[in-house]
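Exercise: predict the structure of this protein bound to magnesium ion.
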Amino acid sequence: MTLSKEQQIEAYRRMWLIRLYEEAAIRLYGEGRYRGSTHPYIAQEATALGVCAALNVTDQVLATYRGHGAAIAKGANVNAMMAEQLGKATGLCKGKGGSMHMSQHDVGFMGSNAIVSGHIPIAGGIALAQQLDGSDAVTVAFFGDGASCEGVFYETMNMATLWKLPLILVVENNEYAISTHVSESISVPDIATRALGFGLPGVIVDGRDFYAVYDTAAEAVARARRGDGPTLIEAKTVRWSRHSAVAAGGAGGEKADRWKLTDPLPRLKQELIQRGIITEAQATEIQAAAQQEIDDAATFAIDSPYPELKELHTDIFA
Amino acid sequence: MTLSKEQQIEAYRRMWLIRLYEEAAIRLYGEGRYRGSTHPYIAQEATALGVCAALNVTDQVLATYRGHGAAIAKGANVNAMMAEQLGKATGLCKGKGGSMHMSQHDVGFMGSNAIVSGHIPIAGGIALAQQLDGSDAVTVAFFGDGASCEGVFYETMNMATLWKLPLILVVENNEYAISTHVSESISVPDIATRALGFGLPGVIVDGRDFYAVYDTAAEAVARARRGDGPTLIEAKTVRWSRHSAVAAGGAGGEKADRWKLTDPLPRLKQELIQRGIITEAQATEIQAAAQQEIDDAATFAIDSPYPELKELHTDIFA
Amino acid sequence: MHELTYAQAINEGIREEMRRNDKIVVMGEDVGKYGGVFGVTRGLFDEFGGARVRDCPLNEAAIVGFAIGLALSGRPTIAELEFMDFTTFAMDPITNQAPKLRYFWGGQATVPLVVRTPIAAGLGFGTQHSQSLEAWLMHVPGLKIAMPSTAYDAKGLIKTAIREPNPVVFAESMGLYSTRGEVPDEDYAIPFGQADVKRKGADVTVVALGLMVPKALKAAEELAALGIDVEVIDPRTIAPLDIDTIVASVKKTGRLVIAHVAHKTGGVGAEIAQQVVERAFDSLDGPPVRVAAQDVPMAASQFLEKALLPDVADIVKACQSFR
Amino acid sequence: MHELTYAQAINEGIREEMRRNDKIVVMGEDVGKYGGVFGVTRGLFDEFGGARVRDCPLNEAAIVGFAIGLALSGRPTIAELEFMDFTTFAMDPITNQAPKLRYFWGGQATVPLVVRTPIAAGLGFGTQHSQSLEAWLMHVPGLKIAMPSTAYDAKGLIKTAIREPNPVVFAESMGLYSTRGEVPDEDYAIPFGQADVKRKGADVTVVALGLMVPKALKAAEELAALGIDVEVIDPRTIAPLDIDTIVASVKKTGRLVIAHVAHKTGGVGAEIAQQVVERAFDSLDGPPVRVAAQDVPMAASQFLEKALLPDVADIVKACQSFR
Ligand SMILES: Cc1ncc(C[n+]2csc(CCOP(=O)(O)OP(=O)(O)O)c2C)c(N)n1
Ligand SMILES: Cc1ncc(C[n+]2csc(CCOP(=O)(O)OP(=O)(O)O)c2C)c(N)n1
Ligand SMILES: [Mg+2]
Ligand SMILES: [Mg+2]
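Solution:
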């Protein structure tokens, strides 16, 4: 399974969409256009894109409050996302969810969750449904190094392995849970090592290398589609930005420099040019188009109305 | 570190105390002398005894509702235990706890817990206190194969390894969680394998072999006292009896036969005789004395008064 | 009509629904071959197989989490927790996930989940196996909560719970599992939010939950002999709560007693009392009276347990306490 | 006297107690070098070191479980949960273990545990980060629960909580963290179970919790202008609850309003109302009125959130609702 030119170009385009979406989200927060917080995916883009490039629309993706990248990678609508960010009626979730609770089921983005690890067993159940339905679809759960400390992560690895579920657990090790470095929270050097205790493959990949992530994910997806069960993928990455608009924590300084060296955007651009897939000029166009799309999304979000108060009482019960 | 003659004889005596305590507890339940349930430790005796033989009185032991064996192995008073079993005022816990909630802190039995796995992180915290106090005491948590599926077990392994705590996690794999066989609940053949994902030693031992358990525990205890951190010990054993007085589940049939071949009592007796530590005659005396002690405990429990109703309102707040 | 125990009625309800809809899945500890630690799922494994009736490892949080995933995927799922006390392990999926996903995703999700769990109070299981925690769940918007007291209600309510496209906690009373009752041979379901007046009466309204319903009826008999005519109302579901039926009764009797096995402070009794006070203040002869477990941990010792739990005599006394 | 923010007051209280007793340990996510995700433990790591101020992995159940183990070992331990919504991960240690161990072990254990956690309602954090769950905990015998509303109370109550030999849940109001107040320079502690009358009044009694206390005081000012003289009572601890002070006030005013940010149904308001009704039925002019969050999941969108949460205007309206 290899990526078409179009897929690679689309990945580059979406990488810019994610980066620029997050920058816009931070700016709009600074302007006081929404409350709560926002958790940028900046610097981690290649992971969501590499994994989602290996998925079909019918495959399901679940993510965390830091899930804007996964949403865009799976094809979510950025206008509706930005409107959701601002709590507008035109948002993906009618403004009820906000930055930490986005979802777009028609593209297989089963949504983000604000409870660290809360979505992991839910992803296991979705994978179980795929198996029971006899479909060859798979489920991916993205989560962080911190989430990998919560009991349900292990419980889910055990059940998914026991039942050979089409589940791909992607732990994005950006080294920090808010302020806590992995060396202070995880008893082994690599989170992938956890898999040894559960009998599923545990693979490490450079989360900032789009192609490496894609290859790793494609293998895990193929394995899952074959019915051979789950895989744990540890994507080594960094979190360049603050934890969130509200909390600083980790990163910064020397980390920021390291990030600049490994920024997935110039990296993917160079590779695309070397592979003769795009030219420098096309790359510039793609970036400009993405910028336009995000600017339009911001305008759309700002111009959109807030939900009517009666919305408080809808969507509670089906 | 080797066991004195006295220790070995005492272990044999306590093994009979446990066996006979449980048989009496079942009988008294059958006679309707208490309600709720009881969870016999029958067939697993060698594990608690082997582990506790490696401990001092200042070391702490926590166990489950199937904790009568651990209590007796740590030196708890069988009269007070049997009275607790019957919910009497003279019980270890004034009758408030019953069969599933026994404890005798003055012998370092920090008690049993009816919530499967609930005591595991608590044991971790006790081990942390031992470390902070600079004492060389250690903490042991006994629990079952089923408990090893609960998230807090993994969370505790991670924290204890990270902080090098003097904690010994003893999983008594009797193959069943009520009716569920380990092959249906655990994704790897050996629970000790879980340790690989957490960076602590995971050791397998025949839980019905007193000497093997002792040697394994002694090594883990020494490691903990040295400040080298926790150990996971998987004691392979069988549950010959029903899960409890209320629930059947697992065991029986072919399992029962397998149990008879591996009954730790005749096994330890033979070894003691071979080692020239006791004679057949002495063995018989020990057994008879234990029988007497348990009969007396039953009488004591039956003759003891129930707690006064005012006890309902004591021991809630210190 | 045929006679079933309360446990058999739940079993029959699940079985019939599983026959009607082959997407339904049952999950939990020991629910498969063994048929459930209290036998409620007996025979389902043999009829529907291990794919749909799934023995799970001992991990409540993941069991309910997985069940939510199945429900989100269009498979109504029944998860069993062996004692209500163990909901403590699954509070995130039960309260932060199942009842909220549809809302914060703006209506994109539907969560046909049933969490079955028995309340074991009164059987001597002790402090960590005797709690009745429905009050916690009643405080969570998005959850529906059923608490049957008879075989008939149990079957009719479990069917509604399974057909519900929303998360339901189905709180069974272990003390009623072996009680017997008549159940219709034809299919029926009991709508949520419809209280059942188990006994008509003019003098005092007793609202009783689960295990306390038969005790309230017994108390009513004793009180009848004393010339006090008690109306016994079983809400059957506390969310939604059929407050209208309760208020109508109190407007007639002027006196309200609420009986549940849960601890008094912070229990459902306070909520029902306050809702009645809000709507029928002027009809009340006196304050609503709560008959509930004392506010002490559940003790194992049988006489302590008996003393701390509410019983027939307490209901009788409460009904006599009005001026 | 010196001025501190509510967050600083808690910090100072913890710091002073840690100086008095070197056995005290602080545990939680980001509580160490970083000083807590909202800065409440700032500086403690530098002063007391990593052994006593411990950054933990992200696992609430084990954090509270470990804290109980430390407490059982004679080390008063303060565990932080970053939002009250995450108590859902630690409900077993918080409700099945900490408040019950001493009881079912017949008095052999002492559990000096403090679980600190902020209620974030009103800040736009959305459905899973805005819940006020004190009602769950009030239903659990063996737990004490403090809910400070001022810097002065926060410091005085955290000290009592830390000195308590029993499990305490210390529910902070995130919306008050930056509010400032005067705090004595000398050591002081506020006993649990003593309500504070924040404002004397003759016409209506308003019992307010946490974030609602300043709102109630604001409402009282507006109402004073309208000739309605409101008495504002802050229970400060809901377990133990100083019902006597509340009842005495209601006997004077005849009118009761209870205000909390938690959802109305199943909230603490129902319990306080019923306790007052039980003790002061004849003094009441009308039913107690609850001012609380609507029974819908907390929505992120700011105007939805504003609409679903109780505010000054709702208290004013409630106080005017009496005949
Ligand atoms: C159960 C739970 N505990 C704590 C939090 C608060 N919190 C939000 S994000 C976060 C750190 C998560 O770190 P990680 O899993 O590594 O993900 P990252 O933020 O690095 O993407 C914490 C502690 C939460 N939301 N949920
Ligand atoms: C949290 C929790 N879940 C479920 C139960 C019900 N339960 C009691 S014992 C048991 C089986 C435990 O099996 P295992 O851990 O292997 O211990 P064993 O009984 O074999 O000694 C179960 C499911 C419980 N008490 N606590
Ligand atoms: Mg991280
Ligand atoms: Mg077992």
